[in-house]
Design a protein that fits this description.
442 residues, UDP-N-acetylmuramoyl-L-alanine:D-glutamate ligase, Protein-Tyrosine Phosphatase, Chain A, eight-stranded mixed β-sheet, six-stranded mixed β-sheet, globular
Length: 442
């Protein structure tokens, strides 16, 4: 299988849509020898912050000398980004080899009259094969959607189950209240696991606590009250980073270069998980924690990809993430002229997302995300115009970038957000053709 054939196969597999449930992935992995049963996992579910917590954990564990695999979504520029070992994405040769193995098993299932695996199930099985053959000491595994019926939930008892903040998202699949969604997310909690939980509403806490009692799991609630004062520093325009200092319990002062107070909360959640992980046979020295936190960079999360004018991309794709984006902009760019490029999927609460963010923008430019679920940029502009008088619809991301650059001038800031698919589309713009991905090529 060539890489072109591999990408074509995955494009075709995506037409199988989304099919929550474990029967198909169980059959697929069974035919592949259940490679997941040989691995140690940290399993992460939640609505927002999963990727950042995963990145903090993986970078610290790598710094400590553990061979660490990661499987996450979405990719920004290409499928291979979703599979990394020690922060390096899978090679094209390995991607093709493992995908061909999964394809053989998937084709046999169809011949036997079974449902074809979805693209996410194929990716999940591929990740297990890859991490098992490469003998990863530990794998940090992010759910795709939900928890109970997510393909990643085929794994047996993980070392730790991490639940990041839960809010409304994927309502058509998971339900329309936070409590119902929390029951899906809490499905990754299994007997014998330790559970680390981020900041939640009372009703979500109750659901998670009930699940922990049912599974007789220890529940550790991330103690944010131990946080000392957070000190955000001025943006480093030369290196495109946003340094933040914070104190946390006995660890003293620590620093991260991902922006926003919510990233400090994500770092704390990762630190709490590491404390428990040490008791499960994976100790990490303080010096590796400090170094790992400073190395952790998560593309697409308030990431500065260019200067003159500064151009920031953020995958704020739902209401909660949009609110955090607005909070972060207030911290770093108070009294700055901000130009938005917005592209939102139609299954999101785009009206509420606009209301949470529009007050900070001087001008809003809307685009249609290159996704079957993409909401019309023209319709988004009509909606945004209800709350912001200076709104323009662009026919393409390239046109939006050109217009935003003109409007920003020398002292403005450009912020592109709403869907990871518009971040991918930035590759078509010459200025950003070498935009970094979620993992270095190997």
């Amino acid at each position: 299988m060539t890489y072109k054939e591999a990408t074509e196969y995955m494009t075709q597999a995506k037409k199988n849509g989304i099919s929550p449930g474990l029967a198909t992935i169980e059959e697929l992995c069974h035919r592949l020898g259940n490679p997941q049963d040989t691995l140690n996992f940290i399993h992460i579910a939640g609505t927002n912050g999963k990727g950042s917590v995963l990145n903090f954990l993986a970078t610290i564990l790598k710094t400590a000398g553990y061979r660490t695999g990661c499987f996450f979504s979405p990719a920004i520029t290409e499928e291979r980004e979703r599979f990394t070992i020690n922060n390096r994405m899978i090679s094209k040769a390995d991607f093709c080899r493992y995908l061909e193995m999964v394809k053989v098993a998937a084709d046999c299932m169809v011949i036997d009259g079974l449902a074809p695996p979805t693209a996410f199930e194929i990716d999940t099985a591929l990740s297990f094969l890859y991490f098992a053959e490469k003998e990863c000491a530990i794998v940090v595994l992010e759910t795709g959607m939900g928890g109970t019926f997510d393909a990643t939930n085929i794994i047996k008892t993980p070392l730790i189950s991490v639940i990041t903040p839960i809010s409304m998202d994927h309502a058509e699949y998971l339900g329309r209240t936070d409590a119902i969604i929390a029951r899906h997310k809490a499905g990754i909690i299994k007997k014998g696991a330790s559970v680390v939980c981020g900041v939640q509403s009372d009703e979500v806490y109750d659901v998670i606590a009930e699940k922990c009692r049912e599974c007789r799991c220890s529940l550790h609630i991330s103690p944010l009250e131990k946080l000392g004062r957070i000190h955000p520093k001025k943006p480093d325009y030369k290196n495109g980073t946003f340094r933040q200092l914070f104190t946390y319990g006995e660890r003293g002062e620590l620093a991260i270069i991902m922006a926003g107070e919510h990233q400090v909360s994500n770092a704390v959640l990762a630190l709490d998980a590491l404390s428990i992980l040490a008791k499960r046979g994976f100790p990490v020295q303080d010096k590796d924690v400090s170094k790992g936190l400073l190395k952790a960079i998560w593309p697409g999360r308030f990431q500065m990809i260019a200067g003159k004018p500064p151009f920031i991309i953020d995958g704020a794709h739902n209401v909660a993430a949009a609110a955090k984006l607005a909070d972060t902009l207030k911290i770093y760019f108070t009294n700055k002229r901000i130009i938005y490029i917005m592209g939102i999927l139609g299954d999101k609460d785009y009206s509420e997302m606009i209301q949470r963010t529009c007050g900070l923008a001087e001008h809003i430019i809307t685009v249609t995300p290159p996704d079957p679920r993409g909401f019309s940029g023209y319709e988004l502009a009509l909606t945004a115009a209800k709350w912001h008088p200076r709104t323009t619809s662009a026919d393409s991301i390239a046109e939006a970038c050109e217009l935003a650059t003109l409007l920003a001038g020398k002292d403005g800031i450009i912020v592109a957000f709403g869907s990871f698919t518009i971040l991918d589309a930035l590759k078509s713009v010459k200025r950003f053709s070498k935009m970094p991905s979620n993992g270095s090529a190997s």
